[in-house]
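Write out this protein's structure.
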Amino acid sequence: MIHKSSPVWRIAPGQRLSFEDFEDGVVLFDALVGSTHLLDPSAAEALAIIEEAPGLDASAIHAALLDRLQLSAEALPLAAVDALLQRFEAMALVSVECP
């Protein structure tokens, strides 16, 4: 039986992220391209989790995010985290690996 591993997420190679908290959200400086992004707290926390523990799959990121934000899975479903990760990848903030 072949077991397929889930894709894992890391901060994109060469990327350095710098966060600044403001009243309306979190501003992220993307050093790779020199731009800024306004993030909501859950998006900023998701990137922080990936930065602190590279190589987690979406389920592990989701579980860590629920724990940090003290949310239920109904309040923040796994599908929303999957979509967020895809968006981060499209922005070249993270990269995905299939082990």
